[in-house]
Amino acid sequence: MADSNDETLKEDSKPPGLDFICSFFNAQTIEPLESNLLQVKRQNVVVRVETNLEVCRQLFEKFSPKKTLFELWGFRYAFYLGYKNQPVFLIFEKAGEPLGLLPLWYEKDKDELRWFGSWWQEGNTFWFKDKSIIPLVFSLFEQKVLLNALSMGVKTARRLGLTSDDPKFLLSLEQYPSLDSFLCRFNRKKKYNLNRDRRIILSKNPKTIFNRFEDIERLFELSIKRFENKDLSAFVQEQRKQTFREIIRQKGEYEIRTVTTEINSEVVGVDLIALHRGVYYALNGAYDIEKHPGLGNYTNLLLIQDAIDLGMKAVDFLEVSYGWKEDWFKPIPLFQFNKIEPKAS
């Protein structure tokens, strides 16, 4: 990870003041005290607002459980380097003792508070020593806040009044320790179609190259081309490209792996993978399916086999189905606290 004293850790603009931050809060439940402190009404709890990036890094390292890829500073920091949104970390304290941390940032173009690292972060949990503080968090915000992709039990989410978010999709390799055992979960027709696609691509003598990291640029190109006549690829944004370049550069606490497919010496598919604590995270992939139909199915099976070969416990295919994941994997429910008003059509 980059040195904490690096110039990139310095904010590009003046941090928002407390009066501005208070505009997001419910005045009936919280009020400003002094400097960067707010008092939760009728509670012996104060909220300290921190916007200095280096201090935020230290807080993140202190409170994060670091169980998943999305709980690692290096991964979140890559998104900061891509988008440069202002950190707004909320530290909950009682009698001078820290109770927990809510790591957010301010997205100026939307005028909203979201997770530090954007909505892209998944399986989010609350980093609180005292879990009774969690309902209090939701009472504080009045508007323009999105805490998405929350991981918790369905009953707890309902009790807290949260709404459903897009589910995520995880494949347990302890349940399916081989590719054949995984394929057996499909009905006869689906299994035949997957094997057919794999045979078609294999007949073209594809070459698989691992860890040629410069192929991330080809991933961008393939994605932009794939969606040019539909919803635009996120990689038309330079910020998103830079973020994914930084995901590779910031590796350390997590490992990075690229999987490239060549046919006739042409790169026709690229996947970016992260590895952390036995989980194989399929972060993004793009393929020339117009020229090579079936390449998507072939590659998904290739990634599962790669994860098995590496001794991984699970493959995380992330949130949002995109019209195919629900046919392959069992969805895992996620929830959201959404105080963002729908945009007028």
Keywords:
345 residues, alpha+beta, Aminopeptidase, eight-stranded mixed β-sheet, seven-stranded antiparallel β-sheet, 11 helices, 30% helix, disordered N terminus
Question: What topology emerges from the helices and strands here?
Answer:
Blueprint lengths: L17 H5 L7 E3 L4 E4 L4 E6 L2 H11 L9 H11 L2 E9 L2 E11 L4 E4 L11 E2 L5 H7 L5 E5 L3 H6 L3 E10 L6 H5 L4 H15 L4 E4 L5 H11 L11 H12 L5 E9 L2 E11 L2 E9 L7 H15 L4 E6 L5 H4 L2 E8 L7
Parallel strand pairs: 13-14
Antiparallel strand pairs: 1-2, 2-3, 3-4, 4-5, 5-6, 5-7, 8-15, 9-14, 9-15, 10-11, 11-12, 12-13
Overall CATH class of the largest domain: Alpha Beta
User: Which regions have little confidence, pLDDT < 50, spanning 5+ residues?
Assistant: 1-12
**What fraction of the residues are assigned to beta strands by DSSP?**
25-35%
Taken from the alpha-carbon principal axes, the silhouette is elongated
Q: Say how many strands there are.
A: 15
Q: Calculate Rg over CA atoms.
A: 22 Å
CATH topology of the largest domain: Aminopeptidase
| Whole-number tally of structural domains | 2
Mean pLDDT: 92
Instruction: Give the class from helix and strand content and strand pairing.
Output: alpha+beta
Distance between the termini: 42 Å
* Helix and strand run: HEEEHHEEEEHEHEHHEHHEEEHEHE
Please name the CATH architecture of the largest domain. Answer: 3-Layer(aba) Sandwich
Biggest sheet record: 8 strands, mixed
Tell me roughly what share of residues is in helical segments.
25-40%
Strand order of the largest sheet: 8-15-9-14-13-12-11-10
Q: Quaternary state, please? A: single chain
By DSSP (H or I, 4+ residues per run), the number of helices equals: 11
